[in-house]
Amino acid sequence: MSSAPLAPGATIGILGGGQLGRMLSVAASRLGLKTHIFEPGAHPPAGQVADRVTTADYDDEDALRAFATSVDVITYEFENIPTAALDLLESLRPVRPNREALHFSQDRLVEKTFLEGLGLQVAPFAEVNGASDLAAAMESTGTPAILKTRRLGYDGKGQARIGAAGDARAALDAMNSAPSILEGFVDFTFEVSVIAARGLDGEVVCFDPGQNVHKDGILATTTVPAALSAPQHRQAIEAARKILGALDYVGVMGIEFFVKQDGLIVNEIAPRVHNSGHWTQNGCVIDQFEQHIRAVAGWPLGDGSRHSDVVMENLIGEDMARLPALAADPANALHLYGKADVKPGRKMGHVNRITGPAKG
Amino acid sequence: MSSAPLAPGATIGILGGGQLGRMLSVAASRLGLKTHIFEPGAHPPAGQVADRVTTADYDDEDALRAFATSVDVITYEFENIPTAALDLLESLRPVRPNREALHFSQDRLVEKTFLEGLGLQVAPFAEVNGASDLAAAMESTGTPAILKTRRLGYDGKGQARIGAAGDARAALDAMNSAPSILEGFVDFTFEVSVIAARGLDGEVVCFDPGQNVHKDGILATTTVPAALSAPQHRQAIEAARKILGALDYVGVMGIEFFVKQDGLIVNEIAPRVHNSGHWTQNGCVIDQFEQHIRAVAGWPLGDGSRHSDVVMENLIGEDMARLPALAADPANALHLYGKADVKPGRKMGHVNRITGPAKG
Lengths: 360, 360
Hints:
2 copies of one chain form a homodimer. The first copy, chain A, folds into 3 domains: 11-95, Rossmann fold (3-Layer(aba) Sandwich); 124-184, ATP-grasp fold, A domain (Dna Ligase, domain 1), CATH 3.30.1490.20; 190-357, ATP-grasp fold, B domain (D-amino Acid Aminotransferase, Chain A, domain 1). Chain A is built from 11 helices and 17 strands. Chain A has helices spanning 19-30, 61-69, 83-90, 99-105, 108-117, 131-141, 168-175, 230-246, 280-283, 288-296, 323-328; strands at 11-15, 34-39, 52-55, 73-76, 125-128, 145-149, 159-162, 180-184, 190-198, 204-206, 210-215, 218-224, 251-260, 263-270, 308-316, 332-336, 347-357. Chain A is globular and about 60 Å long. Chains A, B: Homodimer. Chains A, B: Pathway: Purine metabolism; IMP biosynthesis via de novo pathway; 5-amino-1-(5-phospho-D-ribosyl)imidazole-4-carboxylate from 5-amino-1-(5-phospho-D-ribosyl)imidazole (N5-CAIR route): step 1/2. Chains A, B: ATP binds at residues 108, 148, 153-159, 183-186, 191, 214, 267-268.
């Protein structure tokens, strides 16, 4: 079980049944592997393409136990897995990526401290547990700054901007007394992310960096190639290798960087396949989803090189009204998530627009 | 229902749960469509990635009726669907490709007559219903020739080679009294196939021809680009357009040609996605499976152009022992079918070997 590659016919358990779990299931099927989805919500998008689905809460120990013993290895599509559930699952089957990666990515303060410890540049930050901390923190990071809860932040939720001292009270209230972190602003030119994979044997394969544009705190587009200089490109890849190696990581990780004239700042790491890596589905022969499945299944990683240039655009809520036009454009490859209801702000799918053969 | 494109969330019913149904299901998921598989055999490969599976025989009218009414449109992965089942299904939901296509491809004699009627070149052929017919047929086609049952031929089964008059008796016995057709040999240089798609609106998109090599009557490899001259390439595409148009066809069709110095001979048509089109999964942005789903769902067809050159190799039976080496080679993209048992002659998967950016 431990380090031999999973044979075709084996089953990968996936915690979370959203679009990432769905695309992981599809990738697993290409390698002859089955998937079993664990998801509290009914009718998860991933369930439409998975061999099995368990609908249960993360505190349902019987369900967790039955799930774990029905699979050969466990992975996940989101990082906020309750600790007790993880404890139980880990006692029954290998969980990849490992606990270490979750530990660092579940807490912004721990994450930043870890990254700084690796000699990587991060935004100025300070711990905040109340009004008195905040004044000192603002002095240390400068303003404007963003106050964020240490845990469970996702797509701009649990965040408040502090432009000047007068914003402090409202920002603290928005945190609802949760342990928080104040992050100083970084004056950056643009943001890129690297989707990196590390195999069970320690091999690391990185996809080319993508350039991200956010709108209302949600990723809007990722463009490859990114407008990085060769040294910047190298620096991003080297940082990714350092992070994955330090965590003895197995699987795909998304790493966001702010690009400044004089270097790269690591913004955030996500121990899973990442929205900014969706372009790989149509830009590479082996995409981030298959790369992740290969890693957690103990297979050799695939080739990560890019054959086409791509602009990935998220389809959010009302964007679905554009579907007829998007489907009719021959430059587009569509990827829809099988979600029943269109809601404002909800990620419904994405489109990979092919802009030409790979260059740059 | 009839001609409006299916909206995301709709369900495509697929007759047959093998590897073709499996890869069709995966393609449907990209477009936000669900699939429901109808298959007599238990645990079909397609069931691992489909939203629903019905396990029932083609003479189970209740099961057919429940299946049809649960889906929005019906397609199939194989052409030998029993007539009574088709009658019932057609009365409840659109079946695409249509009956016409099945009619022609289910019977080799009818197929050849149809193709000849379109002005396309086919191998010399003659109807054979017994020993007396056979002598006349051999005179008309010349020897060597191949005696084939008119119906249900697949991967070299139900065929017998007649080198000289002395082989006639054994060949007839091999047909087991089934209505047959004698096909004269064609002295060809190589075989190619065109994977062509036609949308509900009549638009036709063809993938580049692939060059096929068979072994023991089973497809072994398909290579793109094929070694066709520009006029031969044009002739193949024009023949494909003519065939699909004449049938008012909706979906993907595989068309095999023998290539001779002085022209192309149409060997066979298959009204479905085709093994010789598997290279499109890694050579094109939109593959044959998505193209078929787009067509039967009434969507506009996708771009069929090739970004990479590919050699597709089938993995048959014992080839699965080569899996570790195949998985470790970065030029390879693997596609395994999730079949539980490795059997000699059984198609277990295929590998698309990327040989470079598209040229030729």
